[in-house]
Amino acid sequence: MSLEIANVSKSFDGAEAVLDDVSLAMHEGEFLALLGPSGSGKTTLLNVVAGLTRPDRGRLVLDGEDITDRHAGARRFGMVFQSYALFRHMSVAQNVDFGLRVLPRAERPPKAERDARVRELLDLIEMGDLGARYPAQLSGGQRQRVAMARALAISPKLLLLDEPFSALDAQVRQSLRGSVRELQRKVGVAAILVTHDQTEAFAIADRVAVMNTGRIEQIGTERELRDAPASPFVRDFLKAGAG
Amino acid sequence: MMARAVLIALALAFSVLFIVLPVAAIFTRAFADGPGAWIAAVTEPETLAAIRLTVLTALIVVPVNIVFGLAAAWAIARFRFPGRRALLVLIEVPFAISPIIAGLCFLLVYGAYGPVGGALQPLGIQLMFNLTGIVLVSLFVTCPFVMREVLPALSVSGEDEEHAALTLGASGWQVFRLVTLPNITWPLVYGAILATARAIGEFGAVSVVSGAIRGQTMTLPLQIELLYNDYNTTAAFAAATVLALLALVTLVLRGIVDAIQPARGATP
Ligand SMILES: Nc1ncnc2c1ncn2[C@@H]1O[C@H](COP(=O)(O)OP(=O)(O)OP(=O)(O)O)[C@@H](O)[C@H]1O
Ligand SMILES: [Mg+2]
Predict the structure, then answer these.
(1) Which of A190, A219, A225, A183 is nearest to A27 (CA)?
(2) Residue A136: its chain B contacts at CB < 8 A?
(3) When you count CB atoms within 10 A of the terminal residue's CB, does the N or C end of chain B come out lower?
(4) Does the beta-carbon distance from B170 to A81 stay under 8 Å?
(5) Residue of minimum CA distance from atom 2 in ligand 1
(6) How far apart are alpha carbons A229 and A240 in whole angstroms?
């Protein structure tokens, strides 16, 4: 899988541009972090990639195919929301099953196969016994993992994570960081993680894209960004966070 | 302690005087001449026709209300569009103005001499003084109920779950049926019950546009007034018991909804 974001711009209600000519290319199986201050357009960019927000200009190309006009469901990108957005009235197992349940009849696996897949995913997130629980009965970390399993259930081509750890305390955050990275490697899926925490970005991602006021200032590894910041903003932003 | 006892006694006395006694009086008066007279009065063709018309009206009005209320609440909760605030205010109008004025407005616009009614007249379409007119004004007076109950629930249930369902491949209809609707089921049922009660009991607006054709365009409330004015007191009260029973059914339904709702909330 290779994804190319080409010259994407977006503004809401004719106001100032929230995304301003954003371009970036992702490699096979890469873990990319979008790092930037609040309001810099990270979530908007993720929503454009997910198909939840339509860009005003620019294209999205997936494996050589233009998917700009493809609707969210047909893209098969698994998304984990900042609020987790678990279905409140469904059990954990039903949440994870959702992506399989809504498949067209012809593509939908038989119930037994679906159940097996759900069990496999629940084991993967080490919540095998909690399938019958409802989201309200879970801890924050458990909810986060269910959201992850639900996104993985559709065998996504790309995983989109919007500040998935921001609602958790520091300790849980650190341990989940490791397990998310491990899950992503195990499944072999490319991922984009949105965060405003540079420690998190550098700890988890192969490359980090630094965003500011709707533009990507620089993309690179921690080394590249620190040794050769492309703009004063990147230099100051990384310095501020490190200090 | 003393104050509490006094307050409770006051509340009880008030309920008995102003709620229990009048309702009990209807039933006592209706059965004053014995159950035979009650049955005879209720099965009288004109009264039966009125019951039928009232139920039919509710059966048309409430589903339309549900669809319209859902659509309006959805649009207001999920989209920013010009006129959104106006819609929010406009939808309260039926609650703010007197039903009889509503009836007169409909007559002015949709009656034979109104702009819409007049235009339809040559085509042989008459909107007022028949079932259509009764349904139209009933729709008007009941239209805020469903939307008002659903909108707050829809606003708090948020877009995130719907977006998540979309990224998981659900179609628009699947999102609505599997994600949105379960989150607003109880407010929806509640609004529908309130709308039903109002549709059944509406007098003022309907009396203006019904045309009062005996046995044809008389709803139950209108029929009751007619019988009463004819000094046919037993029949009037017998018909009133039917209306009261219909209202009691909606009250019981409401109680059931209230009882179930918190239980569901505890295990979301
Ligand atoms: N639906 C919308 N309508 C209008 N403006 C919006 C909308 N969504 C986002 N914006 C604006 O776009 C800008 C970028 O928002 P975005 O949510 O992408 O920022 P972010 O980088 O994710 O910030 P945070 O770290 O706080 O989540 C903000 O100024 C925001 O007010
Ligand atoms: Mg954001």
Answers:
(1) A190
(2) 267-268
(3) N
(4) no
(5) A12
(6) 14
pLDDT recorded at residue B265: 41
Q: Nearest Cα to A25, choosing from A50, A62, A54, A58?
A: A62
Q: How far is B71 from chain A (nearest CA, A)?
A: 21
CATH number of the domain at B50-259, please?
Answer: 1.10.3720.10
Question: What residues flank ligand 1, with Cβ below 6 Å?
Answer: A 12, 18, 36, 38-44, 196
Q: Residue for token digits 């965060």?
A: A195
Q: What's the pLDDT score for residue A78? A: 95
The 10s digit of each residue's pLDDT in A15-25 is 889 999 999 99
Question: What's the order of all strands across the beta sheet hosting A65-66?
Answer: A17-26, A3-11, A57-62, A65-66
Q: What is the ipTM of this complex?
A: 0.92
User: For the CA atoms of chain B, what is the radius of gyration?
Assistant: 22
Give the Cβ contact number of residue A227 at 10 Å: 9
Domain ranges for chain B: 50-259
Residue B262, pLDDT above cutoff 60:
no
* Nearest partner of B140 among B115, B111, B104, judged by Cα: B104
Domains in chain A, CATH or no CATH each: 3-242 (3.40.50.300)
Backbone φ and ψ of B83, nearest 5°: 90, 5
Contact B168 A154 (CB under 8 A): yes
Distance in Å, alpha carbon of A118 to nearest chain B alpha carbon: 15
Of A83, A98, A136, the CB nearest to B268: A136
Considering the entire predicted model, what is its pTM? 0.84
What pLDDT sits at residue B121?
Answer: 87
In this prediction, residue B79 has a pLDDT band, given cuts at 50, 70 and 90, of: confident
Cα–Cα distance measured from residue A7 to residue A140, given in angstroms and rounded to the nearest whole number: 37
Structure tokens at A63: 């494996």
Other C-beta atoms lying within 10 Å of the C-beta of residue B119? 10
Which one of B158, B163, B168 has the shortest CB-CB distance to A102? B168
Backbone torsion region of residue B211, taken as left when φ is above 0, otherwise alpha when ψ lies between -120 and 50, otherwise beta = left
Residue in A with minimal Cα distance to B168:
A99
Which chain B residues contact residue A133 at CB under 8 A? none
What integer is the mean pLDDT of A212-223?
95
